[in-house]
Amino acid sequence: MSEQLQARGLRFCRGTRTLIDDVSLTLPPGEMVALIGPNGAGKSTLLRLLTGFLHADAGECWLGDRPLAAWPREPLAQRRAVMRQQNSVTFPLPAADVVAMGRAPWPAGNCQAVVQEVMQLTGSAPLAQRDYRSLSGGEQQRVQLARVLAQLWHDDGPRGWLLLDEPTSALDLYWQQSTLRLLHQLTRNGRFSVCAVLHDLNLASLWSDRVLLLHHGQLVAQGAPHAVMTEPILTRWYQADLQVVTPPAQDRPQIQLRP
Amino acid sequence: MINRLMMRWLMLMSISMLVCMLLAANLGAMPLSLRTLWQAPLSDLAWQIWLTIRLPRVLLAVLTGMALAVSGAVMQGLFRNPLADPGLLGISSGAGLAVALSVVLPVSLPPLLALWLPSLAAFAGSLVVTLLIFSFSRLAQGQLARLLLVGIAINALCGAAVGVLSWLSNDQQLRQLSLWGMGSLTGAQWPSLLVCALLIVPALLLVQTRARRLNLLQLGEEDAHYMGVDVKRTQRQLLVLSALLVGTAVAVSGIIGFVGLVVPHVMRFCLGSDHRWLLPGAALAGAILLLLADTLARTVVIPAEMPVGLLTSLLGGPWFLWQILRQQRGLNE
Fold first, then answer.
1. Cβ contact (<8 Å) for B220 and A53?
2. Strand-pair category, A192-197 with A157-158
3. A92 contacts in B (CB within 8 Å)?
4. pLDDT digits (tens, 9 = 90+) for A6-15
5. Above 90 in pLDDT, residue A36?
6. Smallest Cβ distance to B228: which of A84, A91, A104?
7. From the CB of residue A44, how many other CB atoms can be counted at a distance below 10 Å?
8. What is the C-alpha separation between B254 and B177, in angstroms, rounded?
9. In chain A, which residue's Cα lies nearest the Cα of B1?
10. B268 at A interface, C-beta within 8 A
């Protein structure tokens, strides 16, 4: 599968404000991409354009050989899954049922096996029978991650594009690490691509292959973490007083705020 | 495993429904036990009563109970709100207003169309209010308080309009209107029952085919979209179907409150929130509840009979208050 998810000259306006301004990017399979940027840069909006939920005012998103909008619903859902920041559920629902919903685009069959496997991977297996509403924010995120992985799961692991909006926002250190390690490792199969909005620059630096820096709706920098996460670039776009330290024997810089 | 458990529940409920149907058909101003019927010839008065009065009435109770309960379950699923109900949201009264219009306004139609007119009017009325409520709920981002206020406004408005119509009507129309507003299954006759069945049964089956999509909508419209659901289309279809269910039920039996609220609630507690099981469960339980209520309404003041809508409201009102109190306590904890 040599398909790519491609954005060409995206522009998106709401009223008089231009939220996304001429953004082009490519998400090839087998890559883990972090989307970073200061508050209000348009990260979530860009993500929603890439998922096909919002329609650009100019430009287009392509998946493989045709525009995103031209894909029939189910085949598209089999190839791209999205995890949003929050989900609220009104009625009592076991966590395992939420994960099983991820199999909706697929014919029934090995649903149970897939659900068990992804819940094991994301560490949400012990939560399977708990009511989703009673879970903590972090536990809910792990269940949602299991759901979107289930949506893209094949016999030999996930395939397709997974877009995530701050998947680690409610996770503690242990789960931040294991979640991003998991996603990074899953992309190594070469058929699975991850694009995550991340607020924590250090997490973005540690696990992404490529970083996209968005500012006022424009893609102002992109490249490997050590190329983008430099003091001049970050200071310029974030306006924060910070320093960048690169631990020896690593090319993954870590960002520290100056007191 | 879970499926087998659910199937067992549904089987059990189906059997209870059949038992209730038999009981309901036997009880009444003139008790007709199975033995009496067995021994009597088909031309006997007992059979006459059973076939032309009891049986259609029992079947109508089943259909109406199913329609109200399922439309309640669908509304609650669509609005993602446990207190959504055709009655509270004003959908029943919208249908009521349309039926009142069709009763009072001087229109003369060929008999075949006249038979269908109340159903069509009720359907149109419930559809209009449903769409209105739905657009409001999207503006209000599904806030319950707002939605119920809209429902109150619509209820008040339709009530006033029906009041005006009653004031304009002649004595016979007035009596027809006021009895109808209390909700009763006395109008059960084979022709109207047939019309009812032709609308309600297909609508119930169509709703059932959308149960999975309704499940996915529980995660929110955006997530349902990502999982391959055509959200707008599904919502529209389900709204139209539940308006059809409510409209038809209201057209034949007047306003019977709280069935659509109470039944899905209890079923969610017993069967869980998976609509593939919840919808048939609600249908069966709705049928059972209305059968019991109607039998009670018919027998409690023999030889007269009480409008069943009054009975369900008398029982459902306190239950609803208790629910609100319980929710409030849940919020305060």
1. no
2. unpaired
3. 268, 272-273
4. 999 999 998 8
5. yes
6. A104
7. 17
8. 9
9. A112
10. yes
Question: pLDDT tens digits, residue range B128-164?
Answer: 888 887 787 777 655 556 777 888 888 899 889 988 8
More confident residue, B191 or A236: A236
- Two structure tokens written together for A217: 């709706």
* Locus of tokens 């699923």: B77
Query: Which pair of structure tokens corresponds to residue A133?
Result: 């509403």
CA dist., res. B99 & res. B180, Å (int): 10
A245: three-class secondary structure by DSSP: strand
Answer yes or no: is pLDDT of A128 > 60: yes
What single-letter amino acid sits at A90? T
How far apart CA A135 and CA A94 sit, in angstroms, is 10
Nearest CA to A114 among A83, A159, A170? Answer: A159
3-class secondary structure, B296: helix
Pairing type for strands A66-67 and A157-158 reads unpaired
A84 touches chain B (CB under 8 A): yes
Residues A91, B226: C-beta atoms closer than 8 Å: no
Residue A243: count of CB within 10 angstroms of its CB = 13
Q: Which residues pair with A94 in a beta bridge?
A: A131
Cβ within 8 Å of A, B 61-120 = 80-82
A231 touches chain B (CB under 8 A): no
Which candidate from A89, A92, A105 shows the least CB-CB separation from B219?
Answer: A89
pLDDT at residue A198 tops 80: yes
User: Looking at residue A83, what is its pLDDT?
Assistant: 95
Confidence (pLDDT) at A1: 46
| Interface contact flag, B272 A92, Cβ < 8 Å | yes
What's the mean per-residue pLDDT of chain A? 92
